[in-house]
Amino acid sequence: MKLKLFLTAAAVFLALYPPCAASEIGLYAEEYQEIMGWGGFPSYARSDWSADGKFAPPVHRPGVYDALFRDSGLTIYRIDYQPRFYNGVLDDGTLNTNAIDDVMTVVETARDYGVTDYLVSIWTPPSAMKSIVSKVSGHMNDALVKGYDGVNYKSGLLADREPDFIRYVCDVTAYIDSLGLPLPTYISLQNEPTHAIDYDSCFYTSEQYIRVLKNLRTALDARGFGGVKLIAGEGNNFDYNDSLFQQTYQKIHLNDTLNNAIDTIAVHAYAQDTYAWNRNTFARDVFRTFDKPLMQSE
């Protein structure tokens, strides 16, 4: 069995595990679940880690890269297909390749250190494809594409733009391939898809999430990217995946097309209070007994 887990510290580290029975997991058990790898989140929005470049300016970057990709022993890392990758002014499928090139410096650097596995965790579709747009220019991306404005809306992917979004994801992947760089090992359709918040985010209903995920798998396969695996979930607590797939993941178990589209189930292990922790206990046990590799991506 292989369980994929991303061990996380301050939303930075990741770990991977294989599927296994709950009885194989115990804090004091003699045998433990196999950990396939672990990693980090070295670049949210830019190769310099921040809009002003102060976090990792060029003079400090070699030391940061040494620490991440040489000294820490990480085997996988996480990046984003950012909304600035898409030219929303033209809104005709054109990519902003300069923006992609910026983040690909991380992929190129990691490859030079011998780390070629990475997860693309998408935090929002481009703003032109969303139902309601709230942007803050100059924040991390060319615009921060919020899922929530602090008042009353949950911004989502427009149903009639789903094909455009899927094509965009495939086009970015194809552009990376054209650069001769490693392709993503995994793509996650949406970071925390049921959590609309005041930063890059996008709200999905269960029906839309499942529909887009299945269609994305079909499109990637058709474009020759069958080796790129899809991750499902990434809810911000163990139980947040319930609203996508039901408590026992029945929507996956009962749908062969969906089940075959998904390689790995992911979760973010945040608990907020006693009630959430009790719910998480049940959801965590179901998560651990699932028949697919598992990932804790935050």
Short description:
With 298 residues, this protein is of the alpha/beta class. It has helices at residues 61-71, 97-112, 162-178, 206-222, 242-245, 250-253, 256-261, 274-288, and strands at residues 4-5, 13-17, 37-40, 76-79, 118-121, 186-188, 229-235, 264-267, 294-296. Helix 3 runs parallel beside helix 4 (206-222).
Calculate Rg over CA atoms. 18 Å
- What is the general shape? globular
Largest sheet: 8 strands, mixed, barrel
Instruction: Tally the helices.
Output: 8
Describe the oligomeric state of these chains in a short phrase.
single chain
The residue-averaged pLDDT reads 79
List the helices and strands and how they pair.
Elements: E1 4-5, E2 13-17, E3 37-40, H1 61-71, E4 76-79, H2 97-112, E5 118-121, H3 162-178, E6 186-188, H4 206-222, E7 229-235, H5 242-245, H6 250-253, H7 256-261, E8 264-267, H8 274-288, E9 294-296
Parallel strand pairs: 3-4, 4-5, 5-6, 6-7, 7-8, 8-9
Antiparallel strand pairs: 1-2, 2-3, 2-9
Helix pairs in contact: 3-4
